[in-house]
Design goal:
5-stranded parallel sheet; alpha/beta; 7 helices; 2 domains
Amino acid sequence: MAPLTPELAKPLLEVAGRSLLARTLDGLAAAGVAKAWVVTHHEAKQLQAACAAWKGRMQVECVPQGAPGGTGHAVAAGARHVNGDALVVMGDGTVSPSVLVSLAKSPGFALAAAKVPDARPFGALVVDGHHVRDLAEKSPNPPSDLVNTGLYHVPAAALRETADLRPSPRGELEFTDVVRSWASQGKVSWIPAEGWMDVGAPWDLLTALELLVGPELNALLGREKMGGPGTIEDGVHVRGRLYVGAGAVVKSGTYIEGDVYVGANSRVGPNTYVRGPTSIGRGCHVGAAVEVKASLLMDGANAPHLNYVGDSVLGPNVNLGAGTKVANLKVTPTNVRAVGPNGPLDTGRRKFGVILGPGVKTGINASLMPGLMVGADALLGAGKVFSGWVAPKSRLL
């Protein structure tokens, strides 16, 4: 998830005011789970604090994994605390809560599966009706377009087998070895994973935004088209839905289209154009003559003067200088390729702007080209054009 998570646990990335982890815990509680164990490693203290702050009737406890040794190793760390069957769920994606409810009700060993356009990055399933026969992990020639989402109902006996796993050719303890063993005996069923997506790259947050903002506003606004504890001044035009958090203000002349979430203590406007789905975090400033389209602004991000931000993610405390513009569409009719620290990757998106890591700042009238990725605390100078990958703490002045 570079450049967004140098000092943040990936499951704590937020969309519309809720982290991926909090949404997963919400779904587990809705499924009737009495207690959840969150297996931690990277930034464990952050996860412990987030679990302590989560509000619900389900008990939540963190379990340290130690030096990470693969998914099987992580499941084994949690399984030591479990008596009986359990749900095993990845904490860094998103899925409809109804899927977790269905998994909780499933008999025996069950997994949630989804159809995807390209199964090569996933574990592709061989199925017979609603039974799983085999699983091909990250195969260059997947046997199907139906993939394992990493969401399971696991019998107690299968949980115990994680203690006896041996390293795979990759040198890791793989939970999918347990899945394949049970599948070969005809003991694994599958259910459809509605609303699932894997948040595996920074631009996936934009797809998560598309999936999550609408339901979030349904929960917050009900039948109303705008509201919340914040202030919406006279003269704000809403042609969609708008939620405004406590202490936030949307100023006169602002025009809203689609679903827009504004977090606590943020300022939007005056005379700002915001097109949803857009999520503006806590303590942000989106100012005069600014247009924001289908973007995610994390806490403290600022686009204060004469900016265009489209199909982009601005990390915490980013500040765009006056007149900084984001380009989100290539002149050639192909997908945007994002250039990260390990080279270019196809985003699969025809429209895609930039990913700016925490603390990035731009000078006035900087131009940011499609697919630009900028590491934390970099400075991009005034009046220049930037593309590709910019390393953390760079000074391109």
